[in-house]
Amino acid sequence: MTNLDDCRIERDSMGERQIPASAYYGIQTLRAIENFPISGLKPLATYVDACVLIKKAAAIANGSLGCIDPAVSEAIITAADEILQGNLREQFVVDVYQAGAGTSHHMNVNEVLANRALELLGDIKGNYQRVNPNDHVNYGQSTNDVIPTAIRVGGLLALKHTLNPALESAIAALDKKAVEFQSIVKSGRTHMQDAVPVRLGDTFGAFAQILRDHHARIASAASDLTKLGLGGSAVGTGLNTHPEYRSTVARILGELIGQPLTVAPHLMAAMQSMAPFVNVSGSLRNLAADLVKISHDLRLMDSGPKTGFKEIQLPPVQPGSSIMPGKYNPVMAEMISMVCFQVMGFDRSIEMAAQAGQLELNVMMPLIAYDLIHSIEILGNAIHALTDQCIVGITANPERCRNYAEGSLALVTALNTHIGYLNAANVAKESLATGKSLRQIILEQGLMEPELLAQVLDLEGMSELPQSD
Question: Is 321 designated active site?
Answer without folding.
Answer: yes
